[in-house]
Amino acid sequence: MLSSIRSLIKSALYPIYERRIVSRLDFSQTPHHVGVILDGNRRFAKENPDPLDPKGHKRGAEKIIEFLGWCEEADVKVVTLWLLSTDNFKRTPEELETLLKIIGQTVDELDATNRWNIKAVGALDLLPSWLSQKLVNISTKATRAKKADCLEVNVAIGYGGRREIVDAVKSYILESEKSGESLRQAAEKLTAEEVSKFLYTAGQPDPELLIRTSGEQRLGGFLLWQSALSEFYFCEAYWPDFRRVDFLRALRAYSARHRRLGK
């Protein structure tokens, strides 16, 4: 009874609290690119068991469209969502198969909204052919019919920061070879700027803000190269429990920081 009363009080107060945060936010300081590690689905599921969603992945996926709406409201330009890491392939075949199906359904739902430009980032060769082809088709469609002034949504699937850097360097070397350059010439030309041209996120701004849910305070290799100057925000809420007020708190924390960028 007491917990129900507390829940009702919180439900009544949170909209007021949200409006208060919004009124004090300087949206001219909104990050252009926000990266999110969607963590905590399985721990959420342990505390909120559901036989139809034993690992919480489905309920986590249901949060994504709502979250992207909050990003639109805040005038964020690019969002990168880490949906599946290279390490996740170590999970049991049963859980991995279920997770891949949910990811496929989620990407279809994002595409069906026709609201955002969707790009798959990651080592697609690690994925089953049905999913990798789906991601290629959606990314190609977004490139050909890119919607102006729409949110860019990167879905990081089969993603690992070290793998991305290795892939970028390999692509640079192969491109240099096509241009008739020797290995020595390619090495002499190699710079950070050149590597950036071959990253999965090439052409997009680096993320100013990275958010990780579930209370874990590490990046785990997320956007390893791009996050050199990013601000980090770690939230205690599990991803399925992540609320608009949590996102606003992250934006508030970001806007309050003095970003010297090494100067």
TrEMBL record:
The keyword Transferase applies. InterPro entries: UPP_synth-like (IPR001441), UPP_synth-like_sf (IPR036424). This is Unannotated protein. Gene3D superfamilies: Decaprenyl diphosphate synthase-like. It comes from freshwater metagenome. GO terms for cellular component: plasma membrane. One of its GO terms (biological process) is polyprenol biosynthetic process. Keywords: Transferase. NCBIfam families: uppS. It holds the Pfam family Prenyltransf. HAMAP family: ISPT. One of its GO terms (molecular function) is ditrans,polycis-polyprenyl diphosphate synthase [(2E,6E)-farnesyl diphosphate specific] activity. The keyword Transferase applies.
